Amino acid sequence: MQVLKVHPQDNVLVALQDLKKGTRLTYEGAVYSLQEDIPAKHKFFGRRLDAGEAVIMYGVIVGRAQHEVTTGQWMNTGNVKHDTSPYEYHPYRYVWNPPDVSRFVERTFMGYHRSDGRVGTANYWLFIPTVFCENRNLDVIREALHNELGYAVTDKYKAKTRILREWYERQNDVSEVDLTVQESVVPVDRLFKHVDGIKFLNHQGGCGGTRQDAAVLSKLLAAYANHPNVAGVTVLSLGCQNLQVRDFVEDLKQLNPTFDKPLLIFEQQQAVSEEQLITAAIHQTFMGLVEANKLLRQPAPLHKLAIGVKCGGSDGFSGISANPAVGYCADLLVALGGTVLLAEFPELCGAEQNLLDRMPDEHAARKFMALMQAYGAAAERVGSGFHMNPSPGNIKDGLITDAIKSNGAAKKGGTSPIVDVLDYTEQANKPGLNLVCTPGNDVEATTGKAASGATLILFTTGLGTPTGNPVCPVIKVATNSRLTERMGDIIDIDCGPIINGAKTIAEMGEEILEYCIKAASGEVMPHAVRLNQDDFIPWKRGVSL
């Protein structure tokens, strides 16, 4: 198949491969003659449109023609501009037909059971600075612990540098050196076999800025400390910053009054010296690691999983391969009683009505509308807007309006009813599909999803991105096989077979859930985890698309 019409009402078609000008093709009984070369992932018009006429894709308005366009003409930023339909709340009438989950009903994963009843997919020790002034101390501790306890993943690059140095010292031409090093980046000599990692939340906040920034950061850090994938926490504070330790501890107690994980706190302005501070932090953390290593994975039902869904480096195939496949996986998990988190509010622009129609709770629906409208208005006040969300890479690969990007992005959430709408750092306490207010920015969004309780994140990409998270394993899902072949060292799952017709969306969705079960059990290690890709960017609640 060369082309695809995503929805019967669409007046554009997607090219599944590069198509040449003059090509005549037939799709569902209609014949199209291409007026221009149409790159794979891009769209062409299925009929003539007048200036100002709506462009329809996914069955909704995704833009308007800027001038008259003809059948077979390439759809691009020169002839289409972003537009969407208005949205409003209607009484709930949605009927969901859940997928068949019979093959998964009795399945379990091997997770870490916490005292509050949640189950982690990993067992991490977490270092938290209350202020950016402590980042350097965290870096020193990271280097010491990672190198000596077997968590470092850069040994092969150190070896390459060592080879260069030796050649240079021998006055050899370093341009001719062979830097091939047969060395795995997966640590094999970890001292603590049941501690999956020691993670560090370096950030640029905690002082300066506004007090509101510090307050939001405190809630974010508390959510990470309370995360089910975290076994214990070491906190480093300077002492004089806006974000005081007492504020962090209070937010942590408010979030979980029965919090009982080890919590080690060190304040530099109360220490005798920098050496004494770091030595004490390393010593006491080591003792905590000894205890954390005693925790073992135990069977847990699949409804204990909380999966965040995210897309980044998206392309014109995102909304027709990887995102719907992840959406089918999301529906499977919801039908099993699990939790799914869909975020990126700037990338829900144009998909609002579909989402609102799936909300049985009017309060949640009106909360969603208020958050979307406030977010959009804030962007417009600084001369931007949701319409400026697509990146140059998105546009180059066929996502030329935010509404096209958003309606494809929303497919990651599947089709189930939406049980709750969460503001940034709010916890997902209801099983089912939850919406989480975050930016579309890859790291800000994954940071926020983990804060709301995601224990795995499915991250779809068409262009490739290494994004990971310190406490929540991130699984990369490619929209096309060419990306998997080119960047196989960061891609975990290939949805390209959907594009070439080898697999259905449902088949890929089930494969994705199978991979999630293995990742949650520690049987497979996603590439972002293997590479210690620990990206963490707090959202300061400013305009970030």
Note down, in words, how this protein is organized.
The chain is α/β, with parallel strands linked by helices. It has 15 helices and 22 strands. Strand 3 and strand 4 (30-33) form a beta hairpin.
Percent of residues in helical segments? 25-40%
Q: Cα-atom Rg, whole angstroms? A: 25 Å
End-to-end Cα distance, whole Å, is 35 Å
Strand line-up in the sheet with most strands: 18-19-17-16-20-21-22
Q: Tell the overall outline.
A: globular
Q: Compute the number of strand runs.
A: 22
Helix and strand composition category: alpha/beta
**What's the oligomerization state?**
single chain
Largest sheet: 7 strands, parallel
Calculate the mean pLDDT score and round it. Answer: 94
Strand content: 15-25%
Quickly describe the structure.
With 545 residues, the protein is of the alpha/beta class. The protein has helices at residues 135-149, 155-169, 211-225, 245-255, 274-292, 322-335, 352-356, 362-381, 392-396, 402-409, 442-451, 481-486, 496-499, 505-520, 527-530, and strands at residues 3-4, 12-15, 24-27, 30-33, 43-45, 54-57, 60-65, 80-81, 108-113, 119-120, 124-129, 197-200, 230-237, 263-267, 298-301, 306-311, 339-342, 418-422, 432-436, 456-461, 474-478, 493-494. The protein has a 7-stranded parallel β-sheet, with helices on both faces.
